[in-house]
Amino acid sequence: MTPNNDLKILPPKIDIETVSVLKQLNKSSRALAELKAYSELIPNKEILISSLALQEAKASSEIENIVTTNDSLYKAIAIDEKKIDPSTKEVLNYRTALWRGVELVKEKGFISTNLIIEIQETLENNSGGIRKIPGTALKNALTDEVIYTPPSGEELIRQLLRNLEEYYNIETDIDPLIKLAISHYQFEAIHPFYDGNGRTGRILNILYLLKEGLLESPILYLSSYIIKNKGLYYKLLEEVTINEAWEKWVLYILKAIEITSRDTLELAKNIKSLMDITTQEVKNKLPKIYNKELIEFIFTETYTKGSHLVEQGFATRKTMTKYLRALEEIGILKSEKVGREVIYINVHLFNLLKGS
């Protein structure tokens, strides 16, 4: 299959704002606005952001067949880096890349080719950069059949990325959510890197929503929807390439935004409710050790250990161990020995995220 060196630049030359698209756009915009409004009411946004970012890292990596468990992922935050398995490391790299992207967008206010390259390099933990050597092809994992050959040649790839960069940042009459769908297709079609393109593209989705002010915090991730509808995702990407079937693709992404916004809103409410219940329980049963910031901290990461809390200035190590054991006695935390470390799991939060 020859490289797609004739990939058309943006914007598409056909009318994408069909009646069906505009109807779905209304639903998607409303659901996203409700999520944004609720997230702004949460006093400590770090709690929600941290939980959801890790779930996104797991789901997005799973789309690329990089699989780890919630248990391994949460433990990895609390244990020695040398003991973390390769798949879990890749998922944690995703979270690091996401946060770096958020920092850059908030600092610069736009999405650039350099930002895209930095995200991918953080994901892959290397500096391979833009593809320079021809021969890259996307294959069916089961049959080994080539299903798509992206544009070839560094100069052409950079030209296409410059066009994408301009489209990301220029103001147009097209709604930002429709632009997100178009931009996501284009990035995946360019496929500018040797590896990590899918995950980079999904990080760019959230960065674009932040840049456009449609969210204040990085809390909406489409990967959970894509992993459940993975076959259709790749089928519709292919149909845009072959037949310029933009309407079905845009509807897919808009539907993903609607469903994911509603699911995320429900999860956000459940996390806040669980934290409120936990706060009240500790106040009633352990009034001497109750500390609002301590409760918030054990909801920021599912696993923690005494040294983390000491570093945050809550108490000395001896006192902190006493606090953690007291929280374990009333069923808030559960201890587990990992090597020489004793780590503590927020049991109810773990179960809530596991089922999400």
From TrEMBL:
Protein keywords: ATP-binding, Nucleotide-binding, Plasmid
**Binding, ATP:** 64, 191, 195-202, 233
Among its keywords, does the record have Acyltransferase?
A: no
Would I find ATP-binding among this entry's keywords?
yes
Q: What molecular functions are annotated in GO for this chain?
A: ATP binding
Q: Which InterPro entries match?
A: Fic/DOC_N (IPR025758), Fido (IPR003812), Fido-like_dom_sf (IPR036597), Fido_containing (IPR040198), SoFic-like (IPR026287), SoFic-like_C (IPR048770)
Give the active-site positions. Answer: 191
SUPFAM superfamilies assigned: Fic-like
Q: Cite the Fido domain residue spans from the record.
A: 111-255
Q: What is this protein called?
A: Filamentation induced by cAMP protein Fic
Report the source organism. Answer: Ilyobacter polytropus (strain ATCC 51220 / DSM 2926 / LMG 16218 / CuHBu1)
